[in-house]
């Protein structure tokens, strides 16, 4: 599958979600949950970066990083639904954009336990933010299903880009990581 086909498929998949993210379409929570990770630049960059970084890894890290992110994000979402707020929540999310972007840019391969711990910490911040932003008229569980599905799709897009591009394109992936890290710095600067 070529990069052009991947990007075209992604555009087709995301178009309905973006259209239904606007008010007036009835809010059962699912579309609100889908639109949150896609509509926020900080969430979008971090979640694609998890997929990019996972694809740069070897062995169990390839599946452990995205699975850890999704699972921990869901736990964070439940905590956010319950009203828990983390100190420096927005700074933690911005730091995740910076750190994950750097991890991709440098193609770092830390020990699996360190990579999973960092991924879980970042996912917790994203999950709590999702949970705290539950729309008034939404079902928490359909909203959670939406943000989990969108997150998994964004991880898959990042993963597919790395795995399907020729090895010669690796510098472009690293450049995308550097751009994400720079965005993280900009977000932290505020």
Broad shape: globular
Termini gap: 39 Å
Could you name the ranges where pLDDT drops below 50 across 5 or more consecutive residues? Answer: 6-26
Helix content: over 70%
Write down the overall mean pLDDT.
87
Work out the strand percent: under 5%
Q: Could you state the order of secondary-structure elements as H and E?
A: HHHHHHHH
Total domains, how many? 1
- Rg computed from alpha carbons, rounded to a whole number of angstroms: 16 Å
Structural class: mainly alpha
Q: Count the DSSP helices.
A: 8
Largest sheet: none
DSSP, total strands: 0
Describe this structure in words.
The structure is a single chain. With 190 residues, the chain is mainly alpha-helical. It has one domain. It is 78% helix and 0% strand. It has helices at 3-20, 30-39, 41-56, 61-81, 89-106, 112-132, 140-164, 170-189. Helix 2 (30-39) packs across helix 7, helix 3 (41-56) packs parallel to helix 5 (89-106) and helix 3 crosses helix 7. The longest helix is centred in the C-terminal third of the chain and has 25 residues, at 140-164. It is globular, with a radius of gyration of 16 Å. The model is unreliable at 6-26 (pLDDT under 50).
Summary of the model, kept short:
The protein has helices spanning 3-20, 30-39, 41-56, 61-81, 89-106, 112-132, 140-164, 170-189. With 190 residues, it is mostly helical.
Secondary structure layout:
Elements: H1 3-20, H2 30-39, H3 41-56, H4 61-81, H5 89-106, H6 112-132, H7 140-164, H8 170-189
State the main characteristics.
78% helix, mainly alpha, 190 residues
């Amino acid at each position: 599958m070529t990069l052009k086909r991947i990007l075209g498929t992604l555009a087709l998949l995301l178009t309905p979600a973006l259209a239904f993210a606007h008010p007036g379409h009835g809010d059962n929570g699912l579309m609100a949950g889908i639109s949150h990770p896609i509509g926020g630049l900080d969430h979008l960059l971090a979640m694609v970066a998890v997929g990019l970084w996972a694809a740069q890894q070897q062995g169990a890290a390839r599946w452990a990083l995205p699975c850890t992110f999704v699972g921990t994000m869901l736990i964070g979402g439940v905590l956010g639904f319950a009203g828990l707020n983390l100190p420096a929540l927005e700074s933690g999310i911005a730091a995740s954009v910076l750190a994950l972007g750097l991890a991709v840019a440098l193609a770092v391969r830390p020990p699996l336990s360190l990579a999973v711990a960092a991924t879980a910490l970042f996912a917790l911040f994203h999950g709590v933010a999702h949970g705290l932003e539950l729309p008034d008229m939404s079902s928490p569980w359909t909203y959670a299903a939406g943000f989990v599905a969108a997150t998994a799709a964004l991880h898959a897009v990042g993963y597919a880009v790395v795995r399907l591009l020729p090895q010669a394109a690796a510098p472009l992936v690293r450049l995308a990581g550097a751009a994400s890290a720079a965005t993280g710095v900009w977000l932290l600067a505020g």
